[in-house]
């Protein structure tokens, strides 16, 4: 309970600070004419969106229990939200690239002094947030805290590049640096969006998060197991993996398969982070009578 409270407190504090940073950088970029500052503000709001989406999806999934019609409840909301987030980030990146190209061809006037102050404030806020997450006791096992930590690390890199770029503009009077830095931040944004889209697609396409051969070899070490067939593992969301499998056993009675199945479940849950797996046991003779290969024709 306390771990969940700590996680939620950390996320809410980060959300508040990042919201302030977003507004400051967006308004500062518009007022002082800095595209790099505007692009960094969208980088901040992108990470903030990812954090809030994950937190909201988890909250809904925990409150709305599974039903017969929705066996896994609302956990898939996280994936759908992340997919939408990735698409939006890709569009924002494209818009920034286009504007950066236009500014590169026709550099505008930038009030470097004011823009630099805002950029430094943004960097300081990111450092405060990352320190807050670094000392959170549940950072290593809470998926939301871990994700937020990595997002803020990306924000710090973007903020440093903006501060360096605006400093160079102020020292050397080269406004052309601004669109170059903006394009770099947009590239970071696009890389993040691509990763989000790729990971979301993997989950929606039911790609196994674990090496099936490793799972099979580990289960074959259990006494009474002759083979493990038709193993299917998939993610409902980033923190929930489930699966099914056929177990070929060397025992003949149904009662004798119970301890074998319990042993398999325990190993798969603890060593491969599979929350739930449905196991069907059969004898060697029974396994030879039908194919376990999945085939589907439209």
Key phrases:
single chain, 298 residues, mainly alpha, Alpha-lytic protease prodomain-like, Alpha-Beta Plaits, 2 domains, three-stranded mixed beta sheet, 9 helices, 3 strands, 67% helix, 10% strand, elongated, disordered N terminus
Mean pLDDT over the residues:
84
State the secondary-structure class: mainly alpha
> Approximately how much helix is present in the residues?
55-70%
* Beta-strand share of residues: 5-15%
Number of helices: 9
Whole-angstrom Rg: 25 Å
| Mass-distribution shape | elongated
Number of extended strands: 3
Spatial separation of the terminal alpha carbons: 48 Å
CATH class designation of the largest domain = Mainly Alpha
Largest sheet: 3 strands, mixed
Q: Give the CATH architecture of the largest domain.
A: Up-down Bundle
Tell me the series of helices and strands, N- to C-terminal: HHHHHHHEEHEH
Q: In CATH terms, what is the fold-level topology of the largest domain?
A: Alpha-lytic protease prodomain-like
Count of folded domains: 2
* Lateral arrangement of strands in the main beta sheet: 1-2-3
List segments where confidence is low: pLDDT < 50 over at least 5 consecutive residues: 1-5
């Amino acid at each position: 309970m306390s771990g969940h409270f700590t996680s939620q407190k950390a996320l809410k504090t980060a959300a508040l600070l990042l919201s302030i940073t977003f507004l400051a950088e967006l308004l500062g970029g518009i007022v002082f004419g800095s595209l790099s500052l505007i692009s960094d503000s969208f980088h901040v709001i992108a990470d903030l969106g990812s954090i809030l989406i994950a937190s909201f999806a988890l909250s809904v999934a925990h409150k709305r229990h599974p039903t017969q019609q929705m066996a896994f409840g609302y956990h898939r909301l996280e994936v759908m939200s992340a997919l939408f987030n990735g698409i939006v980030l890709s569009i924002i990146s494209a818009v920034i690239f286009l504007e950066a190209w236009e500014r590169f061809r026709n550099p505008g006037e930038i009030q470097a002094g004011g823009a630099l102050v805002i950029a430094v404030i943004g960097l300081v806020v990111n450092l405060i947030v990352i320190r807050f997450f670094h000392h959170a006791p549940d950072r290593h096992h809470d998926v939301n805290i871990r994700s937020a930590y990595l997002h803020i690390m990306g924000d710090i890199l973007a903020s440093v590049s903006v501060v360096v770029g605006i400093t160079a503009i102020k020292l050397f009077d080269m406004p052309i640096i601004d669109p170059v830095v903006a394009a770099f931040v947009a590239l970071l944004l696009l890389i993040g969006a691509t990763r989000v889209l790729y990971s979301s697609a993997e989950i929606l396409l039911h790609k196994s998060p674990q090496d099936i051969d490793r799972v099979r070899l580990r289960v074959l070490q259990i006494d009474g197991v002759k083979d493990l067939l038709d193993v299917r593992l998939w993610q409902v969301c980033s923190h929930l993996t489930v699966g099914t499998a056929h177990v070929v056993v060397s025992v003949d009675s149904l009662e004798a398969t119970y301890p074998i199945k319990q042993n398999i479940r325990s190993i798969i849950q603890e060593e491969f982070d599979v929350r739930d797996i449905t196991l069907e046991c059969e004898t060697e003779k029974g396994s030879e009578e039908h194919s376990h290969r999945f085939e589907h024709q439209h």
